[in-house]
Amino acid sequence: MQNTRDLSIWRSLAVAFGDGLAFGVGVKLSQNAARQNGAPAVRNPPAGDRLEQLEERLRQIERTPLTGAGPFDQKVLEAVVNALEARLNEHTAQMERRLAELESRIAVDMRELQRQTESLEGRVDQGTGVLREEIAAEILSVGKEFGIVPVGSRAYATNTLESGWVPSPLPAVYTDERMKKYREWLPANSYEAAGAIGGSFVSKNIEDYYLSPWDMGYGTFIDFDHEFIGREALQKRATAPHRQKVTLVLDEADVLHAIGSQLEPGERAKFIEFPSAVYSMHPYDKVMVGGTTVGISTWIGYSASERKMLTIAVIDAQHAKPGTTVTYVWGEEGGGTSKPAVERHRQMEIGATVAPVPYVEAVRKSYTDRGWRTAQV
């Protein structure tokens, strides 16, 4: 009796919905019968797929009005649609509840993960701090017989003045077409993109800020017995005249005058900070002789050991002999640029005397036998 009734409903569905949907409902009826007989149930497709199929079929029904369907067929249609809609709404509500529960658990897990991360970072920082203190204590202990004492991080930038190396030459990457892809690859916060040029030396040609190996005193390091990028270009320049790296010892009276301008009425000089007076990533100040620029200064600061205000400069060879008098121009043009570290000021000329590089005799003679400090460039 039950089978006869199912068959009758199946036929009515075929008339009202079409064979496709009737087949689907028939499968459902068959599944029910199979479960009653103990057979394994056929797995239903996901609710989302069923909903999409139902909506598509309803759109087909709306586009094709029913013809020849009697009252019983319309009731079957409404009953099936209502039943499916209720079932899908039930599934949707269940999924929404499960998603809300899952989001809540994820939020709890994320908070716990954040707590653990912060705790781990704190322990790492603490351990690093302890290790740093232990290393520093060991260095001071071992170095006590050599007179090593803590002097603070601000003194670090002054060692270049005594040992004679150029800390931050401008990267020579801004003009060569072969470097274009590299420039495009660089992020906006990279060293090459974010570094600022400061000082009294100004040129519209960025290549005037580039320094060669010979400018920095590294010419003797170049070995042409093998292939490397830039070999041909360096070979062409190897026999040409080169500027030389020197130390400039600034005139004490002129330095004190610049410092004293901070306490006088009128325009003042650019503030000279101690021990390092550098105020930009790439400092470039003019070095002049008789009103003509003969080189640039790349670093300036005070040496407590030498009791001198020193700069590291690169100047034309004919003016590089120790004892030569030159003029160092302190401060920027036009009252100063808009860099945050530059206050309004006036340029000042400071007398300077060319000295060897490195300036400290012990560094020149005892640091190393074959290093650039003792090599003839």
CATH topology type of the domain at 155-366 = Elongation Factor Tu (Ef-tu), domain 3
CATH class of the domain at 155-366: Mainly Beta
CATH superfamily of the domain at 155-366: Aminomethyltransferase beta-barrel domains
Structural class: alpha+beta
Distance between the termini: 112 Å
Share of residues in strands: 5-15%
Summarize the biggest pleated sheet.
6 strands, antiparallel, barrel
> Number of DSSP strands?
8
What is the typical, i.e. mean, pLDDT?
Answer: 82
Q: From the coordinates shown, what is the CATH architecture of the domain at 155-366?
A: Beta Barrel
Assembly of the depicted chains: single chain
Could you describe the 3D structure shown?
By secondary structure, the chain is an alpha+beta fold. It has a domain of 212 residues: Aminomethyltransferase beta-barrel domains (Elongation Factor Tu (Ef-tu), domain 3). Helices cover 43% and strands 13% of the residues. The chain has ten helices and eight strands. It has a six-stranded antiparallel beta barrel. A two-stranded parallel ribbon has the order 1-3. A hairpin with a 2-residue loop joins strand 4 and strand 5. Helix 3 runs antiparallel to helix 4. It is elongated. The N and C termini lie far apart (112 Å). The N terminus is likely disordered.
Which tags fit this structure?
alpha+beta; two-stranded parallel sheet; 43% helix; 8 strands; single chain; 377 residues; Elongation Factor Tu (Ef-tu), domain 3
